[in-house]
């Protein structure tokens, strides 16, 4: 074969490849056009309607099974006897574990909370006491933990919340116990010194403070009402923007909003929900000095509940006055590998200059490590009260 024919042969061999590429181009273009085409709106709505129908049917089915659970438990005295916080915590943790997006954990947990709240209310709505009046952060914490299918009982003081739970007038109560920037709410801790209530849950609520007034003009404001904790959380902002305004402490932020609605020269520091309840305008906010401002609330009940798998135990320890007493009650926790989350002392009610220690430790009182620790500290304490073993806050 001549050199010319070899070159011609090569040229002939290449033609099919070029033809294949040319043939492939229309297919690629068609795929690209299809991928960039807008989805059909009517078709999407049909699919969403179908999914909504399925979701509604499944919620109804869940409610039916929840009713059967109530029947399986037999005739109980009241709605409170059907409520199992450890079971709810386990359900919500599985919701978080399954979540692959696009909705975040907080959203899905809130949705399932409301479903469980509505299913439980088939028996009878729970009665939940909280620091009122309407519109407080305590009320927000109630809804975050129990959902909206409950009967809220706004009360005037933290002491009243304890009393209503202890007497049985409220099934559960919700009270603030500490803030991430301002520390402990002492009145809550002091109530545990004499009350028989138990802690059966906790709620962590991101708190945003707003300046609210009837007129909505900052230049008109001459006095500001709020809870002392909220004043402390916003002190830098107040110093910069309202240095001459009178600061008047009240029992709650909602009470501040209630008072501020009566005059154009008055304002309140409270949450947006309080402004909605009392018809106030948002002058400024959020105005808290730290963006991560968070308050921890305790859920009060009358009994201890079984382990949920991720729990915290709160103890009230009255120590004997002797050298190394505090070390002797903390050492057992270290020996058993238990993480102590919090410790705080308060004057006890057993004698002059006697102190009680509030201790939070990871785990449930039924766990071997905590039971052994409590036994080992017996010789060094006057008394140990288990205030509660409860699920760690979820989302």
TrEMBL record:
The alphabetical list of record keywords is: Amino-acid biosynthesis, Aromatic amino acid biosynthesis, Cytoplasm, Isomerase, Lyase, Multifunctional enzyme, Phenylalanine biosynthesis
> Where this protein primarily resides, as one coarse class?
cytoplasm
The entry's cellular-component GO terms read:
cytoplasm
Q: Where in the cell is it found?
A: Cytoplasm
Any GO MF annotation of the entry: prephenate dehydratase activity
The region called Disordered is annotated at 1-36
Give the compositionally biased regions (Low complexity).
25-34
Q: Which GO terms describe its biological process?
A: chorismate metabolic process; L-phenylalanine biosynthetic process
Q: What is its EC number?
A: 4.2.1.51, 5.4.99.5
Site Essential for prephenate dehydratase activity — annotated at 295
Pathway per its UniProt entry is: Amino-acid biosynthesis; L-phenylalanine biosynthesis; phenylpyruvate from prephenate: step 1/1; Metabolic intermediate biosynthesis; prephenate biosynthesis; prephenate from chorismate: step 1/1
Pinpoint the Chorismate mutase domain residues. 35-127
> Which reaction equations make up its catalytic activity?
prephenate + H(+) = 3-phenylpyruvate + CO2 + H2O; chorismate = prephenate
Q: Which residues form the ACT domain?
A: 314-389
Q: Prephenate dehydratase domain: from which residue to which, for each copy?
A: 127-302
One Pfam match: CM_2
Q: By its UniProt entry, which SUPFAM superfamilies does this protein fall under?
A: ACT-like, Chorismate mutase II, Periplasmic binding protein-like II
Isomerase in keyword set: yes
What is the official name of this protein in its record?
Answer: Bifunctional chorismate mutase/prephenate dehydratase
**What organism is listed for this UniProt entry?**
Marilutibacter alkalisoli
Gene expressing this chain: pheA
